[in-house]
Write a structure and sequence with these properties.
The protein is of the alpha+beta class. The protein is built from 2 helices and 12 strands, in the order H-E-E-E-E-E-E-E-E-E-H-E-E-E. The chain has helices spanning 3-36, 157-160, and strands spanning 38-42, 57-61, 75-78, 87-93, 98-102, 105-109, 117-118, 136-138, 143-147, 163-164, 168-178, 181-185.
Length: 186
């Protein structure tokens, strides 16, 4: 028996086993991250333009709301009650608030008789919010009112209804835009 040939065979098989083990570990780590930590997908539609455009790659932190609840202005991915797919929208109304659209502006009240505050939405390209669908409502606990940034084109809580806390799948933390190539973090 030739020791050199035996060692060569062992070394070759060890290398294949090592490569397979590394590949399995990498696969498990990527699967874990994908299922529980970070989701990445392409956006279809311009309801969040100019913040997020059709064809942008969106990065979603799935752990963002494990300890904290969404806040006004957060961009989230959710599955509405009456729509089977995921939507990307901005949280506007919080649980316990009264929401209304008055003179194409968003007004938030803490009670029905409160005078209310018009919220600043400097991130919008066009600040007008058309009064379409639901324009005045109180928001129950564990519900959120979410709108797209492109209010004239967006199908959002005005038509789809409230977003339940448990249907929010994560917070958008960044966007990769391909034309021109740049990363935009939130």
């Amino acid at each position: 028996m030739d020791i050199k040939n035996t060692f060569g065979k062992f070394k070759g098989s060890f290398s294949k086993q090592k490569t397979l083990a590394v590949a399995i570990v990498v696969f498990v780590i990527v699967l874990f991250i994908r299922l529980f930590v970070l989701e990445v997908f392409f956006v279809s539609g311009d309801s969040m333009a100019p913040t997020i455009l059709n064809g942008d790659l969106v990065f979603v932190n799935k752990l963002a709301y494990t300890k904290n609840e969404p806040t006004r202005g957060d961009i989230v991915v959710a599955i509405p009650r009456v729509y089977p797919g995921r939507v990307v929208k901005r949280i506007i109304g919080l649980p316990g608030e009264w929401f209304s659209i008055e003179n194409e502006r968003i007004v938030i009240r803490n009670s029905r008789t409160d005078a209310g505050v018009t919220i600043d939405e400097s991130y919008l390209k066009f600040s007008a919010t058309p009064a379409v669908g639901k324009t005045r409502t109180n928001i129950d606990s564990k519900e959120y009112f979410a709108l797209g940034d492109n209010r004239g084109e967006s199908i959002d809580s005005r038509e789809l209804g409230m977003i339940d806390l448990w249907s929010i799948k994560g917070r958008v933390v960044g966007v990769l835009r391909f034309n021109p190539l740049k990363y935009i973090g939130f």
